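Run log // design_07
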């Protein structure tokens, strides 16, 4: 084998090793994302079981016990895939439907319910925006890595600022939700006062 052929073979071998290492890195990163989603799924399943427990209390006409369980069953995590975000939104709506059953039986107020429904819908939309922003950045980053180019610092900074802004929106949304839910459950548990007519 000539020296030139040997050099070419070595260069191709090194390039092949680098390419394999890069694909291994991408695979490990995706597996990490999947595992994180798996943890979210476990938390979600645990929250679902609380709805089942609340149903048992509702069947037994133990509405206050049902409400105590439901209050702890909401899912607020910023999930890492669209399916879980949609499932969490539906899950939270299911909780509200069970709360309405209890409220009807107890006679408590549900005046704040529309605000909570709005906040839950808003949260799902913000979570999707966070997911799309992250996916778009990773797609561009992977393309440039394959081309042997590094992302410009301004692009990384812009991405970091967008993510920080979206996460700030999520934090504000969660704060508003927790505050509204506290009022919601307090009002549901209060039976209506008897009207007193003074002559």
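design_07 sequence
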């Amino acid at each position: 084998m000539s020296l030139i052929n040997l050099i070419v073979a070595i260069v191709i071998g090194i390039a092949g090793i680098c390419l394999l290492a890069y694909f291994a890195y991408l695979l490990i990163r995706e597996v990490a994302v999947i595992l994180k989603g798996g943890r979210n799924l476990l938390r979600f399943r645990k929250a679902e079981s609380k709805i089942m427990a609340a149903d048992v209390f509702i069947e037994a006409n133990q509405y206050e016990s049902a409400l105590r369980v439901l209050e702890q069953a909401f899912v607020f995590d910023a999930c890492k895939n669209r399916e879980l975000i949609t499932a969490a939104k539906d899950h939270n709506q299911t909780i509200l439907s069970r709360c309405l059953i209890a409220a009807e039986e107890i006679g408590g107020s549900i005046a704040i319910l529309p605000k909570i429904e709005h906040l839950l819908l808003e949260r799902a939309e913000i979570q999707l925006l966070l997911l799309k922003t992250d996916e778009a950045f990773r797609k561009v980053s992977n393309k440039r890595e394959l081309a042997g180019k590094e992302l410009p610092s301004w692009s990384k900074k812009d991405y970091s600022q967008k993510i920080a802004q979206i996460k700030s929106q999520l934090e504000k949304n969660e704060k508003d939700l927790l505050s509204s839910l506290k009022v919601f459950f307090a009002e549901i548990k209060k039976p209506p006062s008897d009207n007193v007519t003074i002559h």
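The CA atoms of residues 54 and 66 lie 4 Å apart.
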